[in-house]
Structure formats: C-alpha cells, structure tokens
C-alpha cells in the first residue's frame, strides 16, 4: 500500500486533512518541525519531526514509505511578519519547497498537492478572483507562494510532475467533533482572534478599517470551513491518482462576510459582550477578496457541506473553549 507524505500535517489545516485521510483508510506519514504545529494534532498517522528542506530526510521518507503523493502544507503563514522578514518567507516557503520538489523528482514521486493562497492575487479588481485573474501579490508571503506555484507549473511542463494547486481563501472553523482545531499561538486571523476574546483570552478586539467602499465599511472575505477545504484535498488526490491533469483551483464558497458580520456572529453564538474598537486600516489589506470557485466544483466534483458562517463560528468557538479549559486546568 502506498503512502501520502503530508508536510505541515501537525498544523491547523494539515491536521484536518490528515484526519480525513486516515479516516478513509489512507496510510499517511507527516513531516513537521513543529514551529507552529502540535504533535498531538496528528491523528491516525506517523509523525516525523524534521525540516521539509532537509533533502536527505525527505528522500529517505519518500523511498522507505513508498510515497505515491505529497501534500505540502509546511510554511510560514503570517502576512505582516513576511513584510518585516521577507527572507524568512522565501527561505521556508520557496527554497524549502524547491528542495522538496527536487527530492520528489529524484524519487519519481509525481503527484503533488500544494497549499497556495488567495494572497497570490493581491488586490483583484472588483474584489473577486477567478483562477485566471492576474497574479500580483502585494506581500512577500504571497510572492513566496507564487514562486512555488511557478516551480510546479514548470515541472509540469517538463513532464516531471502532475499537481493540484489549491488557492485557499480564508480558512476557518474546526473539526465539528472537537478532536482537533486551530491552536496557533499569537493568532492574527479575525475569526480566531474574535473567538479568543469571546472566551476571555483577550481583553478586546479591533476592527481594522471602517471606511472601505463596502456596504458596512469593513473588509469582506470568503470564509471556508476547514472540513470542506480538507475534503477538496482528498478529491484532488483522487484526481491525480486517476491520471487527471494538473489543475489550479480556488478554494472558497464564492461569497463573503464583512468584519462586522463575523463579529456579530461571534457575539450571537457565544453570548459574550465583546469589546470592539475601530482602528485604521491594516496595511496591505484588500477591501474585498472573494473566490470565483466554480472550477473546484466542476473539476473535482466538490460540494461544500458547511457553507454557513454560524456553523463555522460554532466549531471555532467550541475549540477555543476547549483550549481555555485545558489552560485553566494546568
Ligand atoms: N490559514 C489560512 O487561512 C490559509 C490561507 C491560505 C493558505 N494557507 C496555507 O495553508 C498551509 C497551512 O497553513 P495553516 O494555517 O495550517 O498554518 P500552520 O502554521 O498551522 O501550519 C503549518 C505547519 O507547517 C509546519 N512547518 C512550517 N515550516 C516547516 C518546515 N520547514 N518543515 C516542516 N514543517 C514546517 C508548522 O510546524 C505547522 O505545523 C500553509 O502553507 C499556508 O500558507 C493557509
Ligand atoms: O483583529 C483583526 C483581524 C483581522 N481583521 C480584518 O478581518 C479581515 C480578515 O483578516 P484575516 O483574518 O487576518 O485574514 P486575511 O488578512 O484576509 O488573510 C488570510 O487569508 C488569506 C487568504 O485570503 C491567506 O492567504 C492569509 O494567509 C491569511 O492570513 C480583514 O479585513 C482584516 O482587516 C480585523 O478587523 N481585526
């Protein structure tokens, strides 16, 4: 039986994908250096603690485990940090991806699923991006991911790789059964920050920008539940295993919510009286970023199961309560 190598499988999104893979009976090996991941998030798979840029280690894993496909989540992901320290991002997200790809080519592993991002589009005209929208990242994080996309495209042209590039929009929510979740320390993402405040972990919450040209003046994003996103990865794997061609696909629901709508939903679901301040725009934030996501449905037969902001918030909040109870017990 062949194995899937999942890099970054101890992280937020990777751990949800690993859980779905193992529930389906797939054999999985996770490679993660735990810089932002957690060993106990890896369920149903072997965890190897190591760096994805370590070519000797990766080559050994590919052959010893008879790997037939790679899912590559390992990355640094904090946009403002990428602006302050770009080489950290080019090093981990681009150079390490290059090393991983070199190992795959050498070992003849030619199925690759890559975690890309809506950040490759930058600030698309009209706030809606399809896969052919010009790629104009406005921060090093987005550029570091785009460079990885380019390597994959060129390997595809050279006949050395078939790939599915998944461009995630705003990923949120957690395992509805509460077994794993988003534990990222020092989180900056709106939904996580709002849930942390709702459970008392933060004293307040800021809205960054109330003067955007949007109906309520705040930024609009396309929030996709992590379980739906994980399901898209399993479909991408099936596509490559049945000799499907290389694809680049947006992952979102095709509609969005404003910052105020997200905060109102967290307030309603949690019952907490949130302390919200209004602050100036955060540098580099587009007013609106929504996926045109028809291609994902058409090409992989994917249909969302959790396209419901309240459900997303309920699952995120349940995980935050779990973390708060665990911390209180320590
Ligand atoms: N969260 C989002 O909304 C979002 C949106 C778009 C794209 N993405 C992409 O999805 C992927 C997963 O993101 P996440 O939100 O789960 O982040 P995360 O930080 O929870 O997960 C990343 C994982 O990669 C590991 N890692 C990092 N560098 C490594 C290295 N050199 N070697 C081995 N392991 C390493 C970390 O320890 C962590 O477990 C990333 O590639 C990210 O760019 C995330
Ligand atoms: O405390 C906060 C945090 C965020 N926001 C706003 O909320 C929206 C969403 O912000 P955030 O949750 O930080 O996500 P994005 O900045 O949209 O970026 C995320 O989503 C991208 C894909 O769209 C990914 O590529 C990035 O990795 C990921 O950080 C934006 O309008 C922010 O200005 C606030 O008002 N207050």
TrEMBL record:
Single GO MF annotation: UDP-glucose 4-epimerase activity
Pathway: Carbohydrate metabolism; galactose metabolism
Signal peptide location: none
Keyword NAD among UniProt keywords: yes
BP GO terms, sorted: galactose catabolic process via UDP-galactose, Leloir pathway
Alphabetic keyword roster: Carbohydrate metabolism, Isomerase, NAD
Reactions that this protein is recorded to catalyse: UDP-alpha-D-glucose = UDP-alpha-D-galactose
Enzymatic class: isomerase
Cofactor(s) needed for function: NAD(+)
E.C. no: 5.1.3.2
Keyword NAD assigned: yes
NAD-dependent epimerase/dehydratase domain: residues covered: 4-252
Source superkingdom: Bacteria
NCBIfam families in UniProt: galE
Self-association state and partner proteins as the record states: Homodimer.
Family: Belongs to the NAD(P)-dependent epimerase/dehydratase family.
Protein name: UDP-glucose 4-epimerase
Organism in which the protein naturally occurs: Rhodanobacter lindaniclasticus
């Amino acid at each position: 039986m062949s194995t899937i190598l999942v890099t970054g499988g101890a992280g937020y999104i990777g751990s949800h994908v690993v859980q779905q893979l193992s529930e389906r009976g797939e054999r999985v090996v996770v490679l993660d250096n735990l810089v932002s991941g957690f060993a106990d998030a890896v369920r149903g798979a072997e965890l190897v603690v190591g760096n994805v840029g370590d070519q000797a280690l990766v080559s050994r894993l590919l052959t010893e485990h008879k790997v037939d496909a790679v899912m590559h989540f390992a990355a640094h992901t904090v946009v403002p940090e990428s602006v302050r320290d770009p080489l950290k991002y080019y090093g981990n997200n681009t150079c390490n991806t290059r090393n991983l790809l070199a190992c795959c080519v050498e070992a003849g592993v030619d199925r690759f699923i890559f975690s890309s991002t809506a950040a490759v589009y930058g600030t698309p005209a009209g706030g809606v991006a399809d896969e052919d929208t010009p790629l104009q990242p406005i921060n090093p994080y987005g550029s570091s991911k785009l460079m990885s996309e380019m390597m994959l495209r060129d390997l595809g042209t050279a006949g050395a790789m078939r790939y599915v590039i998944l461009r995630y929009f705003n990923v949120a929510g957690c395992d509805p059964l509460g077994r794993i979740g988003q534990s990222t320390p020092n989180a900056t993402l709106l939904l996580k920050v709002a849930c942390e405040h709702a459970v008392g972990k933060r004293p307040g919450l800021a809205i960054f920008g109330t003067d955007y040209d949007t109906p309520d003046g705040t930024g609009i994003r396309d929030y996709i539940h992590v379980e739906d996103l994980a399901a898209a990865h399993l479909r991408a794997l099936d596509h490559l295993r049945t000799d499907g061609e290389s694809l680049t696909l947006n992952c979102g629901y095709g509609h969005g919510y404003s910052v105020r709508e997200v905060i109102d939903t967290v307030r309603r679901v949690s019952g907490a009286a949130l302390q919200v301040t209004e602050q100036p725009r955060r540098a580099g934030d587009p007013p609106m970023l929504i996926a045109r996501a028809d291609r994902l449905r058409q090409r992989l037969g994917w249909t969302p199961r959790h396209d419901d902001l309240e459900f997303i918030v309920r699952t995120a909040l349940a995980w935050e309560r779990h973390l708060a109870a665990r911390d209180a017990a320590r």
